[in-house]
Amino acid sequence: MAASLVSPQDAQTVRLVGSFVSQIPAKSLAIASGMTIDGSPFMQAAALMPESARPRMNRVAAGSASGVELITLLLGDGAMILATAFSPEVLQGAAGPYYTIDGQASFAARGDLLLMALSPADLEASIAALENEENRLTLMRRFDCPNYWYMHMDTSTLAMISGDYELAGHFRAPLIMESAFSPKPDSFLWSFAANIMEAMIIADVDQRYEDIKLVEGAHLFLAGGGKLLSAISGALTFRTADLESSPEFLEGWNNFVSRLEAMADIAEHELVDLLNGSFSIALGSNATILGRNAPGGYVALTGREGAAANILGKIMGSEDLSQAIPMAPLEIEGWDSLFAVDPALIPVPLLFGVTGDTLFLGVVNSEALAKAPEIPAQASRMLEEPLHSAFFIDNAAIWNWLRQEIAEPDSLLSIPLAMLDESGVIKVLLQPILGAELSVPFVKMWSSDFETAFTEFSIVDVSEENRLLARLLNLAQIFGLVGR
């Protein structure tokens, strides 16, 4: 696939590298790296070798292997061309013989494991960890997956890397993050976790987290009919104090609050109440724009203490805000207050209203407002579980909609495109692009707690000539943006 994304000359390099890497004999690889307390880097690695490499591994363990044998264990038979420049020295350490390059990079073998380190001291520590379990690094794993990345960072190291030494004051424990990768024939799952609640100083975090409820549907507010192309929703918890670690965000928030208070007498506590509950953003609801069907969308904030109704009432009661975009009231069952923009002013079905504790702003046909939109099957299965938050995007459906819009001469996209492209050249160039197939037709993300998230990419096999990126590259070559 990578070769299809570059020029023919570079593609040959990609294939050469791929052939080289495929010859590396290691079955799996584990790497631990970081910094010591004094800021010095360290690295330890262990490669699990196949049974066929056992004779060479035995000679490495005994200190009798040649440089050629060691480098081909490391990089495969393709590395034999480098053997003349690879001349490690064999030394006798406290734990037995080992190989080193200029007294730094060091190698040794124990059983089926080829050990590598940045220094002899790191190598000795690796051997000691193998021989005594008490010397091993204990990882607080969250995911049962063999492919993972794990980071443990104390506050002083975090401050040193970021260059912000005040940052350490916002942490009360080391930051631990883990990513796990699970490839499958038709999908790829990425799992992520971080000890946010334990590590970071967040006002009332424990109590606020306990107040967040996991619900089926991940708090997604459904309205407007249609079929959702993408949506994101989740629980919200907010305090102004949360922004104190970022002075720029805090200043922006204070300026925003001051302007709303000046224009509509909206108090900060009302905004905070609105931001403690849940949020939803959705694309795909029923909307009629310029007499044509189009995917609409909306934003919904569900708060507490009647904040939604209070804020709507103050906005509509503000002379400055209400006159900026004149809106007329609508009566629809289930809605406490609802307003619509005059279609003669803006030919878009823009609605603004409140139902219960939910403040709603969307481009939705009013007659479809009470209808729940259809949710794609893959997202529907995800939303059956109690979740903290969720996201999905139906790339295939969006791609098909774009194809139809460009193909129809009187569609909402074709009309402005024709005005910009009187010769039709752009539309001709777009045809092969829109004819491409997507390798990742659907993406979904979900979280069942405040510290853990999962992202799954659906994957389909697409021939090289039909891949989107390959066709984009071909178009870029036509315009001379990349070399042929």
Low-confidence stretches: 1-6
Outline type: globular
Mean pLDDT: 85
* SSE class: alpha+beta
Distance between the termini: 17 Å
Counting H and I runs of at least 4 residues, what is the number of helices?
Answer: 16
Helix content: 25-40%
Assembly type: single chain
The strand order across the widest sheet is 7-8-9-21-20-19-11-12-13-17-16-15-14
Cα-atom radius of gyration: 30 Å
Strand content: 25-35%
The biggest beta sheet, please?
13 strands, antiparallel
The tally of strands reads 21
Short description:
With 484 residues, this protein is of the alpha+beta class. It has 16 helices and 21 strands. Helix 9 (268-274) packs across helix 10 (307-317) and helix 15 runs antiparallel to helix 16 (468-478).
What would you note in describing this structure?
- The protein has helices spanning about 10-20, 55-60, 65-75, 120-130, 155-160, 195-200, 205-210, 245-265, 270-275, 305-315, 320-325, 375-385, 395-405, 415-420, 425-435, 470-480, and strands spanning about 30-35, 40-50, 90-95, 95-100, 105-110, 115, 150-155, 175-185, 185-195, 215, 230-235, 275-290, 290-300, 325-330, 335-340, 350-355, 360-365, 385, 390-395, 440-450, 450-460.
- The chain is of the alpha+beta class and about 475 residues long.
- Among the domains are: about 1-135, no CATH class; about 205-385, no CATH class.
- Helix 15 (about 425-435) packs antiparallel against helix 16 (about 470-480).
- The protein is globular, with a radius of gyration of 30 Å.
